[in-house]
Design brief:
It is a single chain. The protein is of the alpha/beta class. Helices cover 19% and strands 8% of the residues. It has helices at residues 11-21, 161-164, 211-219, 259-298, and strands spanning 49-50, 55-57, 76-78, 86-87, 100-102, 110-111, 124-126, 148-150, 172-174, 196-198. The strands form 2 sheets. An 8-stranded mixed sheet has the order 1-2-3-5-7-8-9-10, with no helix packed on it. Strands 4-6 form a two-stranded parallel sheet. The longest helix is centred in the C-terminal third of the chain and has 40 residues, at 259-298. The radius of gyration is 46 Å and the shape is elongated.
């Protein structure tokens, strides 16, 4: 069998073979074959702009709802300056690795209690400059890794401890520029790591309800806004710094009952009601019996009704002793 020899080939074919062997590595991929994405690549939601670092920028797009197509590689989601007036249950499905969520200036009015389900890795949440008036219990309970929460610039007049839940890692909480007059007792009980609290711009009423906040401020003297918080009412305490109230100033305030005391009250309440009801019935029966007895004493014998008159007249009472004898017959 004869070996392969290039000497017998025409020069044109040899030149063509040389050019094909030198085909650069950057030559275009033939049309019809799409380049494959590595597993776990970022899937960008429609109308948003995404970057390699896992950021999805959906700011100022006039969105009316959270964009669909969120995926696990999304770590930062910017949804500020849109028109998200409400957040439905499980609003961010698929973004389980989300680290930062920006929802500023959306005109947000309501947040479902299950809106943040599935965001266990979220650490930074900004809900400032919206129109929130209330928060349902358990709204932030799924966010166990949360470190910073901003609710500034809303219309909150009440913030219940159940809305925040237990957030062991929360270090910064912004509540400035709301309508808060006091903070509910127990609000700080499940926030052990909290050391930055924004409170300015609220109409604080310096009364017994403000005691938990004053206690927290004394325990955190280096809080940045501690010295600038002033009472807005009542009149004699207007513009008094909140840090000026020692614990003795609240001695006249009623202390909240402990859980054990409440359990005793709830247990004895129904029994006390039944006992008082039985006592009232017994006293009523005794009083009724005494009145009846006194009435019988003043009227010993009841008069009998008069006997109806006899229609036959007095002549029928007694018959005549003798009757006239009939005349003798002749």
């Amino acid at each position: 069998m004869r070996g392969l020899s290039f000497s017998s080939w025409p020069p044109t074919k040899l030149l063509l073979l040389l050019l094909l062997s030198l085909r650069p590595a950057w030559a275009p991929v033939p049309t019809g074959i799409a380049p494959s994405k590595p597993p776990g690549a970022l899937k960008c939601p429609e109308a948003c702009t995404c970057s390699v670092g896992g950021q999805a920028n959906c700011s100022a797009l006039g969105l009316l709802s959270v964009p669909a197509g969120l995926s696990r590689p999304v770590h930062t989601l910017l949804l500020d300056h849109n028109r998200l007036y409400t957040l439905p249950p499980v609003a961010f499905e698929g973004a389980s690795a989300l680290y930062l969520l920006d929802l500023r200036k959306n005109g947000l009015r309501s947040v479902d209690a299950r809106a943040f389900w599935g965001l266990g890795a979220l650490q930074l949440l900004d809900l400032s400059a919206n129109q929130l008036e209330t928060l349902a219990p358990g709204t932030f309970a799924p966010l166990r890794a949360l470190r910073s929460l901003s609710l500034a610039g809303n219309r909150l007049a009440l913030l219940e401890p159940a809305a925040l839940g237990a957030l062991p890692g929360l270090r910064a909480l912004s509540l400035q520029d709301n309508a808060l007059s006091a903070l509910e007792p127990g609000l700080f009980a499940h926030l052990p790591a909290l050391d930055a609290l924004g409170l300015r711009g609220n109409p604080w009423v310096c009364g017994c309800a403000l005691r938990p906040l004053c206690v927290w401020l004394r325990l955190h003297p280096r809080a940045p806004e501690a010295e600038t918080l002033l009472c807005m009412s009542p009149g004699r305490l207007t513009l008094t710094p909140l840090t000026a109230f020692p614990d003795d100033a609240f001695r006249h305030c009623a202390k909240h009952l402990a859980a054990r005391d409440l359990a005793v009250i709830y247990a004895l309440g129904p029994l006390s009601f039944l006992a008082s009801l039985a006592t009232c019935l017994a006293l009523g029966s005794a009083i009724t019996a005494c009145r009846a007895r006194r009435r019988r004493r003043h009227h010993p014998a009841a008069r009998r009704p008069p006997r109806p008159p006899d229609l036959a007249g007095p002549a029928a009472v007694s018959e005549p002793e003798s009757e006239a004898a009939p005349p003798a017959q002749a």
